[in-house]
Amino acid sequence: MDGMIERPAAFADLTGRVAFVTGASSGLGERFARVLASCGAKVAVAARRKDRLDALVAQITAAGGTAFAIALDMGDDAALDQMIRNRSDTVYHPVGTARMGSDADAVCDPQLRVRGVQGLYIADASVMPRLVSGNTNAPAMMIGERCARFITGRDRKTAAA
Description:
- By secondary structure, the chain is an alpha/beta fold.
- Helices cover about 35% and strands about 10% of the residues.
- The protein has 2 domains: about 10-85, Rossmann fold (3-Layer(aba) Sandwich), CATH 3.40.50.720; about 95-160, no CATH class.
- The protein is built from 5 helices and 3 strands; from the N terminus they run βαβαβααα.
- Mean pLDDT is about 80; it is low at about 1-5.
C-alpha cells in the first residue's frame, strides 16, 4: 500500500501496460501513478503543474519504474480531445461488424456465409449480433467450430436450410 491507495489484485502485474494518469500533480494522482509504476506499468502522467510532474517522473524512474510526462495544456479542450483520440483504446471486445441474421441488413446468413459472395464464410466474433455479457473468447471459439462444421458438411441438416 502506498499512502492511502490500496493495491487492487488486478494491479498485481501490469508489465507491458501503459497507464495514463491525469491530475498527477495532486497528492492522490501522484500516489496512484507510483502504485501503477510499482506494478510494472509504464506511466504517462499529465498535470497542470510542470514542476511537480517532472519531480514525479524523476521519483518513479529513480525507484526503477518507467514514467514519462506529457506536456499538455489541461485548459485546452481541443488538445485534450486530440490526446485522448491518439492514446485511447477500447477495453471491450467489439462485435457485430459483420452481423449474421436472416434480415437484409445482415452481412452473413445464420450459416455464416457472406451474402452475395459464394464460398466465403466469417468465423469470428464479428458475426455476433450483440455483445455478450461475458468474455467473447468461448463464443468466438464456438462460432469457429460451428463454421467448420458448415464448411465440411458435417452439419448438413442446418447448412442445407
